[in-house]
Amino acid sequence: MNLVPSLSIVAALLALGVLAVPLAPRRGGSALVYVAALLLTLAALAPPVALLLAGVDAGTVARLSLPLGIPWLGAHFRIDALSAFFLVVVNLGGAASSLYSLGYGRHEPSPGRVLPFYCAFLAGMNLVVLADDAFSFLLAWEFMSLSSWALVMAHHREPGNALAGFVYLTMASFGTLSLLLAFGVLAGPEGAYTFEQIRSREPAPLLASLALVLVLLGAGSKAGLVPLHAWLPLAHPAAPSQVSALMSGVMTKVAVYGFVRIVFDLLGEPQLWWSMVVLALGGITSALGVLYALMQHDLKKLLAYHTVENIGIIFIGLGLAMAFRANAMGWAAALALTAALFHVLNHSLFKSLLFFGAGAVLTATGERDMEKLGGLIHRMPRTAFAFLAGSAAISALPPLNGFVSEWLTFQAMLVSPQLPQWGLKFLVPAVGALLALSAALAAACFVKAFGVTFLGRPRSERARTAREVDGFAVGAMFALALLCLLAGVLPGVVIDGIAPVTQYLLGGRMPEQLSQAWLSIVPITAGRSSYNGLLLFAFIALSMVVVITAIHRLASHAVRRGPAWDCGFADDNPRAQYTAGSFAQPIRRVFGTLVFAAREHVTMPSPGDMAPARLEVRLRDPVWELFYAPIAVAVGFAADRFDRLQFLTIRKYLSLVFGALILLLLVLVLWAR
Amino acid sequence: MNALLVQGSQMLLVLALAPLLTGWVRKVKARLLRRRGASVWQPYRDLLRLLRKEAVVADSASWLFRVAPYLIFSAIWVAAALVPTFAINLIFSWSADLIAIVALLGSARFFLALAGLDVGTSFGGIGASREMMIAPLAEPAMIMIVFTLSLLAGSTQLSSIVAYMIGPEVGLRISVAMSLVALVMVALAENARIPVDNPATHLELTMVHEAMVLEYSGRHLAMIEAAASLKLLLYVSLIAAIFTPWGMAAAGQGLGHYLVGGVAYLGKLAAGGFLLALFETSIAKMRVFRVSQFLSAALMLGLLAVLLLFVSRNL
Amino acid sequence: MNGLGLYFDVAHLLAGGLVLVSFMMLYQFRMYALLNFYAVHALVLSASVAWQALIQGAPHLYVTAGIALVFKALIIPVALHRIVQRLGIHRTIETVVGIGPTMLAGMGLVALSIGVMLPVTGSADILAREDLAFALAVILLGLLMMVSRHNAVSQVVGFMSLENGLVLAATGAKGMPLVVEISVAFSVLIAFIVIGIFLFRIRERFDTVDVQALDSFRGERR
Q1: pLDDT at C174 over 70
Q2: Least packed by Cβ within 10 Å: which of A8, A50, A627, C88?
Q3: CA separation, residue A47 to residues A43, A121, A356, A488 (Å)
Q4: Where does the pLDDT of residue A97 fall: very low under 50, low under 70, confident under 90, or very high at 90 and above?
Q5: B133 interfacial to chain C (CB closer than 8 Å)
Q6: Which chain A residue has the Cα nearest residue C104?
Q7: Residues 6+ apart with CB under 8 A from A479
Q8: In this structure, what are the phi and psi dihedrals at residue A601, rounded to the nearest 5 degrees?
Q9: C-alpha gyration radius of chain A
Q10: C-alpha dist (Å) from residue A345 to A90, A91, A401, A445, C54
Q11: How far apart are CA A181 and CA A165, in angstroms?
């Protein structure tokens, strides 16, 4: 195994970013850049795929250090099974989005603001995954954050985007700070900053717990764990759609990588309560995320909130894996970790696909507001089909891929009674109920997203005159839809591909799947549970074909088109349809009153008055009010106090400096003793 | 080959029996209301008549509207064929466990709700939106029931659960009783039966399932109706298989056992249909927003069942 | 094992049923339904106690079961029915928080009581263990009922169901003397009478049995 190809691709991507500056304004320049990015990311897929397919030999690790960065540290890079898996996710997403951009990028009004950062963003994500010391990791992390921030700000004149950029920058800096502190804690006073050194250290339990909290804050804020998700639904939709896809589908996964790398690889033996925290956070995140998503009528915002839900599902898997690992149940931990990583891959596939679809709708109609869309299935049949596939996959419907990872998570949960701790025994079923709830709500959410956007009748002139997007964009969407189906019907390939990762991190793996009869997947033993997406798919397809042919041959195949019946009260006005808001109303009433303190207020005009009745809905964001508003108030208060420091005399400044110096010297004296 | 034959016959059996069960429930309900009621064979006649009619499709309907009935029917049919009826451990029973069967029904519901939204009418929307309110409550409850049963049996495979329930290990457990009640509640909601929805009317108050399929006609409607019957049959067989597993044959036991299993299965279906009709005639439909409380009670029962597992013996 | 298995199973079923009925009481909106469920609660309790008497071969427990049956399943519900009738409060009970959150909290309480009891009583006999866990759950649910309802009558019912939990705990623990048993029963009866009188007094004063009225009388906010 060699690191040179991967690193040279990163270097090439960086060079491409620089080249993109002069190329961007030219005709065909952006196409050229995207073709190059596509080829580079495709090429970058080869080494990690080769490594994962080579099997569970955990020794396949390549290292490389370059004399860059801090002189006494250098820059260390490394590829092992874990980074290989995430390299696949990153570059698969990158390739799909580059392909999509070949067509989509043509509509970009200011390519100069997008292209350079796009390449830098791809390079940054690759570098995070490859980094093997704290310094390069943080540098790459920050590079990734800043380039994506620049992409969020690409259309900075649109209302709301400046705020999104500000919130994103604040949260990203906060996240990096937490990670920096986490690495500081891990490296200890002697400054062991390479991952190799960190691995060999055994941090004290208290310090390790501190590091875990910091990592949860740092990686969790990037991934979008509730309550740190606030920036995500603002920033992801603000970026151009191919970048939204990358941020939601891939960058959040890089954050998951950071978490897995530090917690499973660097932190040493896990403590039990860690897993409880992660499990509870994951459960809350998944349920809250999808409820937020259901309340949204902006298509891209809905997708961004839904990312929060999926991050929750991934963290449920990770929490389970931590719990099993803390109890030395390697095989169960391998199952849970496989479920989480499988969901990482799945989510990167279908969330990219859905963001591409939203981008296609955006180019075709100029609208993101679902209340003004509708009926697009007639005007954009291919986009609609791909979006439908993505919606079905993300709603965890068999035989697509989303179901497999959730099924694996459930299977891992069913092992939990074997855990000796009572807290976990009770927590896991509760989290299981939350997971089932969020899976079912996700289906509702995507019935809403697809149904209101693509089905029914157009609600605006722009939706009525929409046109199908170009071939590249459709090709990218169909490629991802195909991958969703393949990962759903042949999950064994993916699971076996993840096996080296679990072997490396946990020293255990799931049973080999490809050798099972009929290509079923078997998490533990065949008597316990098995699932065969391929057979289900074949059964459903076969019975459909049989039924359709039988009915059309033997019974009737006549079709008459007519006006909709609608109980005899057909209304031609498309406004009589259900809207996104009305679709979500029952769910808002059932769940929203509790979670969002939703209140509906109807203003009815008096009889004879011709004024329209008005329905006002008030939602309150509990996280914002309970978590961010107090912080904002505290920061404002502190800032007001510190404001006075600006208006001191020179003498007072000097005395401040003098006081600080004396204080430090005192500390030094006391410390040394 | 033999095994394939048995699996195939189960697939045909559920298809053939589903309308009969619906007709039986209707008949019993009619008799309980002191009406004579239509013959139990009436659903077959309805289906055949619908199949032969031309389908009227709304102008604004898309291809999805026309494909959805077949998709829904196939998904439910496959799911129904995987639930043990007269025998366990059929050859394909391991291709989907209980969670997968629940999820298959979820797929059918997903497409049904989309079909409701497709034409762009207000009734379709109301049905779809209410259906998607009911599902997020019913599904976690169902998953909790699955948790209870599979923690007990140590497997999520329906055949293994049934085998466990026949065995002496199970005993009288409060968890099992609770999951039975919860499963009945979920089944009532999922099949749009009376306290949740009324399958017999188009009244607006009861508009969930019927509102979604309002625009369907001809063979498409036949598919939807058949799928609804199959789903009812699926839930009755599921409850029967798990909680009254007696008489069930194991795969490869031979024709005699299969016959016994088949007769027992018919008896269970008849009893289940009778109880359903009895229950439906003795209770009033609830307001739509009471449904959420009804189902959250089912969810609580499911959760409680899981919790109480830990105090029962040997787990 | 099988003989003991049946004994255990029925005891388990009845004790678990008691927890379940406690939950059903939390779910009720209407006064009469609540009272009926209280009667069921007492019925299950008396069955459970009788079963314990059978297993333990302790005839005095039959007395306890009889007391539960006569007083709690018959007299008190009937009396409460009449009170409710005379007060004219058979309307919907107004709860402090919704039914859903209350039941969620109840679920947490059951988990808590199982989690507390089972590890602590690890050495005890399995039957006593699970009885204690269930009893604690019933007690906590009764308390929850008292804090989650405004209405004084439903608070009384919550208190009574709590007391049922105490009896369950006592019988499960093998060997509560009959005297104690009877005195507990009578004290509860007296408490019931006192509360009943109290109820009428509240009503006379404030024209309502909503205990919030007392707060405003004391000058507290809400």
Answers
A1: no
A2: C88
A3: 8, 20, 27, 24
A4: very high
A5: no
A6: A430
A7: A96, A99
A8: -130, 120
A9: 26
A10: 9, 11, 9, 21, 59
A11: 24
Q: Shortest Cα distance from B200 to chain C (angstroms)? A: 29
> Does any domain span residue A291?
no
Q: How far apart are the CA of B146 and the nearest CA of chain C, in angstroms?
A: 18
- Residue A328 distance to chain B (closest CA, Å): 20
- pLDDT digit string (tens) for A293-337? 999 999 999 999 999 999 999 999 999 999 999 999 989 999 999
The mean per-residue pLDDT over the stretch A473-482 comes to 95
Of C100, C107, C119, the CB nearest to A422: C119
Residues A408-432: tens digit of each pLDDT = 999 999 998 888 888 888 899 999 9
Q: DSSP letter at B57? A: E
- List CB contacts of A14: < 8 A, sequence separation 6 or more: A119, A120, A123
Tokens of A585: 């109303």
Question: What is the per-residue pLDDT for C120?
Answer: 73
Over residues B262-277, mean pLDDT: 95
Instruction: Quote the pTM value.
Output: 0.93
Q: Structural domain of residue A597, as residue ranges?
A: 580-605+612-620
Do residues A233 and A311 lie in contact, with contact meaning Cβ atoms separated by under 8 Å? no
Q: Any residues with CB less than 8 A from the CB of A82 and at least 6 apart, and which?
A: A257, A260, A261, A265, A501, A504, A505
Torsion of CA C195, C198, C204, C208, to 10 degrees: -50
C3 has pLDDT over 50: no
Do the beta carbons of residue A168 and residue A152 sit within 8 Å?
Answer: yes
Per CB-CB distance under 8 Å, the chain B contacts of C134 are: 311
Q: Please say whether the beta carbons of C27 and C142 come within 8 A.
A: no
Asked whether the beta carbons of residue A456 and residue B147 sit closer than 8 angstroms, the reply is no
Tell me which residues of chain C have a C-beta less than 8 Å from any C-beta of chain B.
2, 5-6, 8-10, 12-13, 15-17, 19-20, 23, 27, 99-100, 103-104, 106-107, 110-111, 114, 118, 126, 129-130, 133-134
Q: Give residue-wise pLDDT tens across range A3-30.
A: 888 999 999 999 999 999 998 888 888 8
| Cβ–Cβ contact B293 with C under 8 A | yes
Q: What is the CA radius of gyration of chain C?
A: 18
Reported as a single tens digit per residue, the pLDDT across A337-363 is: 999 999 999 999 999 999 999 999 999
Give the number of domains in chain A.
2
> Using CB atoms, which residue from A448, A536, A544 is nearest to B96?
A536
**Structure confidence by residue, pLDDT tens digits, B233-242:** 999 999 999 9
pLDDT at C73: 86
Tell me, yes or no, whether A188 lies in a domain. Answer: no
Contact call for residues B29 and B21 (beta carbons, < 8 A): no
Q: Evaluate whether A488 touches A540 at the Cβ level (below 8 Å).
A: no
- Which of A426, A431, A590 is most worth mutating to test chain C (most C CB atoms within 10 A of its CB)? A426
Domain limits, chain B:
2-309
Please report the pLDDT score of residue C99 as a whole number. Answer: 76
Q: What is the mean pLDDT of residues B188-207?
A: 79
Residue A380 lies in a domain: no
Rounded average pLDDT over A636-640? 91
* Sign of the dihedral defined by the CA atoms of residues A158, A160, A163, A168, in that order: negative
Q: Average of pLDDT values for C16-20?
A: 90
Token pair recorded at residue C188: 């509860």
The residue assigned the tokens 């409820």 is: A291
Residues 271-300 (B) with a CB less than 8 A from some CB of A: 288-289, 292, 299
pLDDT at B102 over 90: yes
**What are the backbone dihedrals phi and psi of residue A620, each rounded to the nearest 5 degrees, phi first?**
-120, 140
Dist. CA A637–CA C221, nearest whole Å = 30
- Together in a domain, A637 and A658: yes
Q: What is the 3-state secondary structure (H, E, C) of B49-82?
A: HHHHCCEEEECCCCHHHHHHHHHHHHHHHHHHHH
- Taking residues A180-191, what's their average pLDDT? 88
Residue A443 near residue A587, CB atoms below 8 Å: no
